[in-house]
């Protein structure tokens, strides 16, 4: 068939017209009016000024736009949108250029931009090149409680490029800046472009240094992929802590070389084991995302599966029934603190964990001791009696305290001897025991009481540093049916994001707020699996993230429209199954759903 | 390279040895002791008798094994396991052989068996051929309230095959039998086989005829794939009803040919429209799974988006603020029942819906009228005043009743004139209005009060037939944070599966239980999207399924171990993100977690 040349030209011309104009299948767009994006019918008159929702929200809320968490320093954003070429991103840093974490962070940043582009709707080509220059003071990548996470970011539109300059003390601050920059880039569905603002200046640093979640991989095994996806989500919200409650009574999924029986008998199956290389992979993955991994080895209670081979002499009440007589959840089990060999085994385990995790802090677990469990062991009772102790609370507390001291000695022996130690609140963290057994220069106490518990104030007054996980806001598993009976999980109801957002550490700490390192949301996995864990965590962990990074004075009502956009961002860029907070009409009609 | 023949033989022999023995990486197996599967260490002594968990559970609970819902007639199962060849399934039916629903059902049955095989762990070849013969009395595939769903199933092991005979009145009963048969086939992970029982005899039929869920695609748009996945889940639990709340005030995602403005302006976007062919595809997909699709067109309230072009004369209070003055959720809107043209538009919409859905019943919506909305229209008030009516409850109720009558006339005009009609409880379903306006031979009333509401008894006494959706058990969206403020959704707390399981219709109906057609769980989507909807529905809809199909007298405690296995089945075979009820330790240790 013969096609006249002019027809080809006409077809090309028509296509170019179609691509340059707004996709006519869109009926609604948005305009920024008084700090709100208002849904507006697209007409021939307004089609050059009408905005896609994501684009409008990018600048239409003071200077914050959709940034989450809110930067704590100066923010100045232009109100002008500029197209940006997703194919042409360049990130450079003289000092970091061969740093493996930096290389991973840059690749991740580029991938995140590509994820914003819907697969069926390719972009129009064109747009300016994005040149990012990162200046840091050190190539060191030590991530601990002393790490400075601050950064400054400027973006300037020049004739041929967008020039971004990031200044930070180290990789971790620079990484946060890339996270912020990514939030400033959105997909414009009406015009099929990636766009950003033409001018930005932000300085930023976190208010609290410990910001994270804890994950329980004993009650439910989560694959390496799920853990990585979760850690990637932490990075997107500038959370910096992954507390890994790796073992418990229900299963022992951690590969142990010397005491391989713990894993062999304790894992749910041979397919549900974290091998040494898996753990190291996760730790490195987390570090490239600015996230510390703090392992927990929970003792002297919370043991069970895996300890079968050591049952006779090293444990008490292992799998005793009825379980409520000896522990809160089946299977019951405590280690027997009167047996010297216990500490040899602990030393072996600690040594392997320190080698594998190389952690910046170590969580020793340590709550929910049942004296009835210890008291069920004749040899343990005999040991106490031989010492002239009575079988009452006073001496069981002494036994517990001595256990903690001896366990700590073994941990110190196989580590640098000065690791920050974390321990759950329990009877041992009350006076007089806490002062007697827990050195306040070594131990940070993770509080899981309710917000108003007077023991929090007492610990602050005693000079302890705290991590807050008050169950009445930060336990993300609450509100569902009980796994053990009908009715509800003990910590019900469900904690909605607003409660988490308003969970003020300033008010909790008062004058002693500087002793509060931060907070952690916990995700106990009695009724959680790989498929629903995302919805339990997100976006509620992001509400916590803003509380900890920005410590905002603004009410949750002002944060809500931003959190809705951030939730979409977690879904699209993070592949996270975040729980929707409102339906789409509310997102399209900002503020009109609030009562 | 030269390989001696004897070496090849040796290699083959070794491989065959390895495959015949239990995979040595498995440490734990199960044995059936006193109706419970007890976790047991695998030893050289017991390795020929030890069972995989799925296999043990298949027969180790009276005759029921893991069937869900429990068959209502005789059940006799052998306690002998027989290997079965997943590659060699043959399903035949003389009468149905070219019936398209039957062909789809057979293909689906075969696919379901393949889904049980883990991708990385291929099966050992071998096992008997499965020959299924289906005898039905009719090739008709009419699915409505008169459809007989009963079936008988027998399975006999013969020397060279497993012979299954299914006898049913029609395709739908036969389809249920295939569902039961599928539940009798499990993957044996220790021996890498699909297995079933060597002898089975089951007769079965449902106790209640209306068993389903309703899904709200207005507040959130769900893709065709998500709807199909949900319907497939219904089929797996022998639920037979998909009530499609397709439109509401928040969006109008249904393609309309004549009134295309409803869709154009009402859909969330052009990507979020159910085209005519999508809907027909879903209806056929559902039918092949024994599921009726009952569409709802909710009026006179619950309109909003899409009605912009008809605002001036056909609606009242459209998008008025503050919304709580005129409706429960934004955007507000009612049709104006005093305008004759409204009924012409309704007739057009009804006609298209009847053509598209070809439904066995039609839901007319009909609740949450705000007289303040109607009263806000001057022309409406004038119309009432001209008739000599006063602007009080009495006459607004009259207006409402007349609207229902006129709307019904138009629906009857474009359908067969005798469709069962369903309507939500409201002021209109109370006396004296219900008897005046709602013909009890036409209307089935869907009750969404709480369980103890006296109005349920009154409706039964007035002779109405009911579908039960009491919000205090069957509203699956409850328990989460409010979408409009902090605090909780109005119908909180969360309804755990036990509450749903114990939600007795017998007790509710008493002597009039035969007027109760069944029940529906509702999934309102204010805070639900494609990613978390599965976890809201499953396995709680399965708890409802057993209540409705089997109407069991047994306590939920006895059902729990079976429901845990059924939940796994929904995940593995149905690709559904069912909410886990207990962690894996409880599944491995049957009954030991219950308080």
Task: Tag the structure with descriptive keywords.
alpha/beta, eight-stranded mixed beta sheet, homodimer, TIM Barrel, 20 strands, 18% strand, Glyco_hydro_20_cat (chains A, B), 21 helices, eight-stranded parallel beta sheet, Beta-hexosaminidase (chains A, B), Beta_hexosaminidase_sua/sub (chains A, B), elongated, 595 residues, 35% helix, Chitobiase, domain 2
What is shown here, in short?
2 copies of one chain form a homodimer. Chain A has about 600 residues and is α/β, with parallel strands linked by helices. Helix content of chain A is about 35%, strand content about 20%.
Task: Provide structural commentary.
Two copies of one chain form a homodimer. The first copy, chain A, is an alpha/beta fold. Chain A has two domains: 4-204, 2-Layer Sandwich (Chitobiase, domain 2), CATH 3.30.379; 210-588, TIM Barrel. In chain A, the strands form four sheets. The first copy, chain A, has an eight-stranded mixed β-sheet, sandwiched between helices. In chain A, strands 13-12-11-20-19-18-17-16 form an eight-stranded parallel β-sheet. The longest helix of chain A has 22 residues, at 393-414. Chain A is elongated, with a radius of gyration of 27 Å. Residues 1-19 of chain A have low confidence and may be disordered. Chains A, B: Residues 208-551 form the Glycoside hydrolase family 20 catalytic domain. Chains A, B: The active site is at residue 368. Chains A, B: Its EC number is 3.2.1.52.
